Every structure is written in structure tokens, then in C-alpha cells.
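Action item from last week, closing it out:
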Amino acid sequence: MLIVVYTKTGDKAAACDLFDGLPVKDMAAWTAMFAGELKKNPGCSWFKTKKGEIHEFFAGDAKHPRSSEINGVLVDLLDRLKGHGYQQILSSVAYDVSEDEKKRILMAPSEKLALAFGLMDSSANCPVRIMKNLRICETCHSFMCGVSHIIGREIIVRDNVRFHHFNGGTCSCGNFC
């Protein structure tokens, strides 16, 4: 439907005008109007191993064969960061949930899962390179800065806007995430 095209291109006014002009305003047309607006790609990140295998991670995903090890690395990194004064930015979770739930959500963005796996899989003297389909959020950006500082390794994240080179606690983007 043309209504979906308008909503997917961000022209909500045109979608509403088209809907208002329909002779029959049924539930199918109403649903179509919002279908393009409500669909969102899930957060996804990729890491390429030394052997050339590409591992894909989705936000909150626990299906990776090494998920328990990945989560262990993340918990360790978070504990080490807290020792340096790091605090998760809970306001970056847009859902109306408890603080504990927000902390749980912030443990599993796709780029954090890819980072933990990358640290497990790559040599200590090599940068960790991650590709991501969405922009990196503020809390993940802060996390990557902190991790690059405490582990002394470069982390490169290519999100859908730019490359972020995290090294020694700073990012090449000047924290313009």
C-alpha cells in the first residue's frame, strides 16, 4: 500500500492525508499506515574470526554456542569498569521498566556481545573489529571507551554512520556518537 511507502520514508503527514481521503477507513488501512513506522531492524553486530568465520550477534541473543563464556567476559569487564568509576547510562533504555531490568538490557546489546567474543577469539596485540547495523548508543559508546582503556587494546566499531576507533579510553569521533 502507498500508505506504508509514506510511513517508511518518514512522510507521516502524507500517510495521514492519504488515510483521511480513503472512502473506507477499515482496520487494514489503519494497520498499514503504522506498519512502516513500527517495524525496526533488531540491533545486529558481526565479528570476523582469525579463521575468517563471521559470527553474528543480536541484541539480547543467547543462542551463540559460547554465550555463557561471552556473558562471563561481559560481567568481568563491567566489574573492572565499575572499579574505575564507570556507571551504565540507564536513561538510554527507553522502556518503562525497573532499574534492574534496564541494567539487564544494557548487558546484552549486540556490539557488547561481539566485543566479548572478539576479545576471546583474537590475539592480545590485534584490534577488535566489529560491524554494526545501527548507530552505537551512548552507553555502549561509553562502555567501549572504558574497555579500550582497561584492556589496552584498540576497538574499532563500524556503525551505520561512521567508524569509531576506541583507544586508551577515547574515541576518534570525539564522543560524537
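Closing note: Residues 67-82 form the longest helix (16 residues).
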